[in-house]
Amino acid sequence: MKHEAVNEKRREFLGTSALAISAAAIGVPAMATPTSAVAAGGGSKNPFTLVYASAITKNEPGKVHIRPVKYKLNGLDIVANVYTPANHDPKKKYPAIVVAHPNGGVKEQVAGLYAQHLAEQGYITIAMDAAYQGGSGGQPRSTDKPQFRTEDIHGAADFITRYPGVDAARLGLLGICGGGGYALSAAKSDKRFKTLATLSMFNSGRVRRNGFSDSQLDTIQKRLKDASDARAQEKAGGKVLYSGDADMTDAQIAALPFEMYRQGYEYYWRTHAHPGSTFKYTTSSLMDLMRWDATEEIELIQQPLLMIAGSKADSLYMTEDAFAKATGAKDKELFKIEGATHIETYWVPQYVEAAMGQLIPFYARTL
Fold first, then answer.
1. What is the reported pLDDT for 232?
2. Is 0.85 surpassed by the pTM of this model?
3. Phi-psi category of 69—alpha, beta or left, where left has phi over 0 and alpha has psi -120 to 50?
């Protein structure tokens, strides 16, 4: 499917997960907010600030409903959207699915899109903002540590399993991009999740440590030293240092190497921008990120596992690596969406439909 209206204005943009690395490499200063935005789902015009296509604008009888909620997790306020199926009856029991968002993303973007689609299939779903990010609490802002992102998933399970109408014995998990890596981590030990799927899984630890496609192995020790110095400054009461955001010219963007980053920049800063979504993360977070890996002890996952990625995604190697290492999951499948890149699985209708074509029978069978 061609999307001429988007493609006409599409440039080569840098994306969500390596701005800190690539921007630093060309000397671009950090910046806190995107420069422009055209929200595909309405953005500020949407009463729920949803920015994906066909997003809910109001709760109508006989259709999926969205219910903003807030709950506590380790003393922090976590904000989330719960999607309930059409004609939801709290006296009945429904399977539920936790949806974990990508790095830098928020619940109103791709996580909400898939949560809404799954609710249309009869599931109660929850998409939450990570602690320290989006609308959730926590200081310093945009702290991005694997232990926190994994705990977010455990906390969402705590909340949704007590939600009216949820059958706690039928709880599934979907992780997208960075949320996919953290979903793998959470499912290793949290056996409340009976089944697990990932979409365009991104192993944040591996990329922060080694660079995308393991391209920065020779700078690991320097980047660890920078992260250590940033933590020392932060804990001494000095300025909190950030990595990840960059205000770049089109020429600088076009010179950057990976399609995931170029298309990701367009998605997060142009077509599906949201004020709560930012690429930045505290530089000190790299101390935690760089020593972590989504595939460590992955054999502990024994639940059914479905991993979906685009056949043309330059991040595909991460899904393939994790899938091969997930030897404990005897019921597992790797599905490649033909022709799709990483970011295109977030929003291009034909690729979203292809992903849902796998998720629907998988969850129906395993939940």
1. 98
2. yes
3. beta
